[in-house]
Specification:
By secondary structure, this protein is α+β, with helices and mostly antiparallel strands. Helix content is 34%, strand content 32%.
Length: 182
Amino acid sequence: MTYAIELFFNKEMEEKLFYYIEKLAKEKITTRFFDYKARPHVALAGFKDVDEKECIEKLKEFAKKHKAIPAYIGSLGMFPDSRTIFASPIMTESMYQIHRELHESLCVFDTRGYEWYLPGRWVPHSTLAMMRGEDDEAFYKACELVLREFEKVNGVFASIGLVKITPYAEEVFVTELMGEQE
């Protein structure tokens, strides 16, 4: 089984990012994000397998020590090989720190096959469209629509969760980041 640890946005920011996903579906370009049953997020880690109970306990402790952190989406990007279109968060020291500390906390779990999520290799992103297998015209239309509609957005990363990746995303456990605010 495959698992991910994902950072989730506050409700307002999530809705603003979801706008692009809905617009792509409304324009009949792609509905794949809906098929995947995900919500906007930034994946922090990927694991080949985890002990769910142990991972949940570690995430509870992690969330108690980490507060919500500012999130600012200022640009767009894509992974051409998988035809993934995404919004890019502006990286801050807080994001690097939470990413690094999460990997230290969950180092007992198998990351083989998910090395691109490791510290020093991570490309943080929030997927807006997954276009692998779609024809070229649909991919170019999706790129054009997202680029034309894009607006920068501010918010916070408010929660963290364990997500099981089957044919779709299944949120196993989600908790608010509860650390003390500065």
